[in-house]
Each structure stands twice: as C-alpha cells, then as structure tokens.
Design brief:
Largest sheet: 6 strands, antiparallel
Mean pLDDT: 79
Structural class: alpha+beta
Low-confidence stretches: 2-7, 9-13, 22-45
Number of domains: 3
Number of helices: 3
Strand content: over 45%
Length: about 290
C-alpha cells in the first residue's frame, strides 16, 4: 500500500470511529433517559392505585362522669366508587380510649393501605363489641354499640401513585347516648383530608371557677334556642377551656362562630358569649384569644 493510500485509509477510519462513538453516545443517552423516566421517584400518570394513611381523633365529651370511652377496632373497610369493598384487617384488635384523642391529638390506625385511584365513597369501621367499654366515675360498664359495622358519611380521593393522609374525627360528644345510665355508642364520624383542614386555638380570659367549653359553629348557624335547651349538638367541634386554653382542630376551611359556654356543677348553662367570623384556612393555624 502506498503512503498516500494508507493516509487516506487512516482518515476514513478516524471519521468512521468518530461517527460510531457519536452514535453510541446517543444510544446510551436515550437508554438512560428511558430508565430515569420509568424508574424515577415521582408519581406516574398512568398509576391505577394510591395509598391512604388513616388516623383517629375525637372531640371532647361534656359528661363529667365519663372518664374514658374505649372502642375496640378489628378492621377498616373502604368502598371505592364502582368497585368492591377493600378490606384492611388490623394485626390485632386495637382498643383505643377516644378521650385521649382530644384537642387536636390523634393516633395512627392504618398505614398506607393500597386503594384504587379516585373517589372512596365510604369507610366502614368494624368494632369489636365485646372488647369495648366505658369508664365512669363509679366503675366500668359495657358499651352498647347497636351495629358492629359503622359506615362513615363522607369520603376522600386517592391520588394516582401517591399517599393521602386522612383523619376520622370520631365525635364522642355526639355519639354517646345515656339511656338511664346505660350508655350506647351511635358513632358520629367525619372523614377529613389533613391537607384541607385547619385549627383555631387561643386563651379564654374568663373570671369564673366553673366549667368553660368553647364550641365552633359554621358561621351563623348557632341560635338561642340551642342555648336554652343546653343542646350544642350541631357544633362542628368543641374544646374544654376551663384551664384557660382551648384548641379546635380538624375544621374544614371556612368561617366559624365560637360560642363560649359557662356551665355549673350540674352541667346547666349559666352564660354564653359568641365570637363571630373566625376564619380557618386549609392547613392553617388561627389564633383567637377571647376575653369576657
């Protein structure tokens, strides 16, 4: 081979190798991009399931003779729209004193239950009747639960490939029925998306030695007939402010009226004071100090 031919052959080879390396680089880059898009930490748009983490909370009970309300949970069932119930059995029966879950406190019941993406229309708590009881000043007694299966009105939306954190606000004040000293539990529960609720807290400056309760009402829904009847059933939630502090948690975003109620030793209403137009924002904490 002549020197001229050899030089031309070398140039051709270098050009070929340069193009080959460029092609390999493109292929490797494309492969990495495909792997990253398929295995990344974010959610995928075609995900058909998500997960739900469920907590329990409670509003205070007004009856001073009640020291504890112990409810035993065996399972939680979820009803997706247009699909069958999804059953989440607990590893063991959970006996929970609901009165420990007041003033914004909560406890984890189930974690990251896999559910179909979209609307969950109902949640059903399976309650163990034999293991549930109420603690009173003068001793314990069985807690009559009319049905072991309790459906919850109100659902939530499961995000595609993500997790939603929800709370079942178990309002014992509305749920506990005293039938001549025999207590029944007719659960009043609402499901809230933790990212869509807020709270109101503060101090109550009230010169009294009596019991003080703060109720939160949706704006303009409280009237004097409820005060006269000592009936605060339609309050969204409540907090005992006898020690001068209160916290109203798990409130949907909106405007509320706070009703401060003074009770005598028999639980009769002595006075009320209303603070109007208190705004609660999603995932927000509003401070409202009250002087009377």
């Amino acid at each position: 081979m002549s020197l001229t031919s050899f030089a031309q052959h070398s140039i051709t080879l270098r050009i070929f190798m340069k193009k080959f390396h460029t092609l390999i680089g493109i292929i490797v880059s494309f492969t990495l991009m495909t792997l990253i898009s398929g295995c990344g930490g974010g959610t995928t748009t075609d995900a058909t399931t998500g997960t739900a983490t469920l907590n329990l909370a409670d509003a205070p009970v007004d009856a001073e003779e009640v020291l504890g309300v112990y409810v035993a949970f065996d399972a939680v069932h979820y009803k997706p729209a247009g699909s069958q119930w999804v059953v989440e059995e607990l590893n063991e029966t959970r006996v929970i004193n609901l009165l420990d879950l007041q003033d914004g406190n909560s406890t984890l019941l189930t974690s990251q239950t896999e559910l179909p993406t979209g609307r969950i229309n109902q949640v059903r708590f399976i309650i163990n009747y034999d293991a549930s009881f109420i603690e009173l000043v003068d001793g314990n007694q069985s807690l009559n639960v009319p049905s072991n299966e309790e459906k919850v009105v109100g659902g939530f939306v499961v995000p595609a490939g993500g997790d939603i954190n929800i709370t079942a606000d178990f309002d014992v004040r509305k749920s506990l029925v005293n039938n001549g000293g025999n207590y029944k539990l007719k659960p009043t529960i609402k499901i809230v998306d933790n990212s869509q609720v807020g709270e109101v807290s503060g101090t109550v400056n009230f010169d009294t030695n009596n019991t003080v309760i703060v109720y939160a009402y949706t704006n303009d829904t409280f009237d004097e007939t409820q005060e006269i009847a000592n009936d605060f059933y339609y309050a969204a939630t409540s907090s005992d402010a006898t020690d001068g502090d209160y916290k109203l948690a798990w409130l949907a975003a909106g405007t509320y009226d706070l009703v401060v109620v003074e009770l005598d030793s028999n639980g009769e209403v002595l006075s009320t004071h209303v603070v109007q137009d208190v705004v609660v924002t999603e995932d927000g904490k509003t401070t409202q100090d009250i002087s009377i």
